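Contributing new complexes? Match this layout with alpha-D-galactopyranose.
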Amino acid sequence: MITVDKQNRVFSLHTQGTTYQMKADRHNVLLHTYYGPRADGDLSYLIRYADRACAPNPDEAGLDRTYSLDTLPQEYSSCGVGDFRLPSIEFELPSGSHSASLRYTGYELREGKYGLDGLPAFRGTAEDAQTLVLFLEDAAAQVCVELYYGVFERYDLITRAVRVVNQSSAPVHLLQCASMCLDFLRSDLDLITFNGCHMMERCPDRAPLRSGVQGVGSVRGTSSHQHNPFVVLCDRGANEDYGVCYGAVLLYSGNFQAVAERSQYDNSRLVMGVNPYQFRWTLEPGEVFNAPEAALVCAPCGLGQMSRQFHRAIREHLIRDPLQGQRRPVLINNWEATYFKFNADKLVEIAETAAPLGIELFVMDDGWFGMRDDDNQGLGDWQVNTDKLPGGLDALVPRLQALGMRFGIWIEPEMVNENSSLYREHPDWALKIPERAPARCRNQLVLDFSRPEVRQYIYGQIKSVLSGADVSYVKWDMNRSLTDVCSAVLPPERQGEVYHRYVLGVYEMLEWLRQDFPHILIEGCAGGGGRFDAGMLYYTPQIWCSDNTDAIDRLRIQYGTSFCYPVSTMGAHVSVVPNEGNGRITPMETRGVVAMAGTFGYEMDLSAASETDKKIIQRQTAFFKARYDLIQQGDYYRLSDPFQDGPYTAWEHVSANRREALVSLVTGGTHAAPSFLTLRLKGLEPDAVYRVNGGEECYSGSTLMAAGYPLPQLWGDYQSLQLYLKAEA
Ligand code: GLA
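Output block (do not edit by hand):
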């Protein structure tokens, strides 16, 4: 519920458990008064005024030296006019100066959730959400800045976006435009970021806020393997079940920054948005710039509650799943099975083994097109290689369908190899700095997706492949970072727009794909999890979590990913042992338990699998399908932290009505003389009696949560256990 106290110009955004409040003060500065567990009234009493040395006073304050932008909590911080903390927005004025100074001019309330042209955004009808727009103005720049707030009460979710309108008769240059700024009148907070590298993405890193600026970002043109556009600020003592936690996620897949600052009087600020690195956007008179959406969840009771709110909101209001309400298929992907060495018969051979085991979708990965016999050539030539696939997809797909399998295909539309017909015809379509030879990465270059004609051409090629066959699934890959960012068609003063235009171009083509092929399930991918973000999830309901398929490393990757993103988004497959990334040997059962905490599939040559493994796979697919809704739609509880090197990693899925739960547990390296362990569960109905795995064992929910379940001793390394709990009628 949004309430407006017109007299005092106080704007309160109430959700079920939280309150977010702003106030336009006597100088029309928009102050941030509060964000946290639900509170009432005008909370601006929390803001104190004092004459602080070296704190500038704006012109309107006259001789009042207690009024300084540098010490007051700002809703959307200015630049160069007296607040020395992190700016949210910055203009280059005709004088060449860099500044921004905003004053409140009005507000508007709307039913339902606002949308954003060409950008991903949470969706909500009048029943789900309300919108508040606050209008600010920079009189010198003659620019209107509109702050958008979407309030989803049931999810404790507040979305934010910013729209900048040039109201002057001259061009305005935007040098920074954050999606959100969040000030706190406190600094005793921990900052959690999610970091890593290719094969080890989104590992949490938690530290108390230090004085000064700290944060993460990406300048790679993608949201990146290295840092995720999701961060948490929380009470120092917060854990899974306790403490106030603020999660902030950016719906953006390119260069971003998320920076926090602890300032001199123990206040703090979080600013998140498009990274100002090499950013300079020109707005002609009347033109509009939309900053991408950011979304906040405040959870009064711990990190677990925060994650569950994000999971629900992402599942129900962000993702547009073509299979909404239906089960997504268990898939087999041939990448780790064959790499580039395959032909139609080999694919069919794998499918012939997979189909009777309950696997429903065959995904043909990289290598099916042009001269793509290795990763040095062929990208850009999206025509079926008929040496490998005689008769093309027309011949292959019916053979798979005859086995009862659906067909999926891999593409990497944003890239080109120099050794390709496309590049020979259009060398200027790749991003290149005219004065330099471009850097290669996986021996490929990046196509200039900021150019409509490039997108249209590539889309045309891919559309004709997809139209010519019965395709149910597309894996959209992106296997390098952007360098040499310069577009052959933009003038020098507009090159600062290329990074962002590139992302808008990717979004546009994804939207075309969704419109033309509404039944196709798209899985995002970027060298594994290099573009795993809430922006992509708007177009691709699942994303390949990591190229690392080792079950034990995956425990960490999926744990870190789960802080914001739901299980139904995490692409996860069972692969062979020894694992091809790290040589580890884990039991087939364990690999299945870990992969079914994601979208679930296999990525191995099943035609070479042992009879024992095949039996296990058959059991796994049946088990997963029978508990699909519980796993994919249920509430997710982290029961342990795999980074703590404890004896096991455990997690739990609980159905919405709490009548069913699935506990999964994987042990680490084994030791002799183990301790007896008890696992305390979460989220159950205290008075319900749960039967364990359909056997004789029964316990009440309160007993399982308070006293715990006695774990059996598991023999050997990396063992697993699943407990399916069902409440007795
Ligand atoms: C990336 C993906 C892999 C696979 C290869 C194909 O690395 O993450 O899953 O598709 O590309 O080249």
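Reviewers usually confirm one structural detail per submission. For this one: The radius of gyration is 27 Å.
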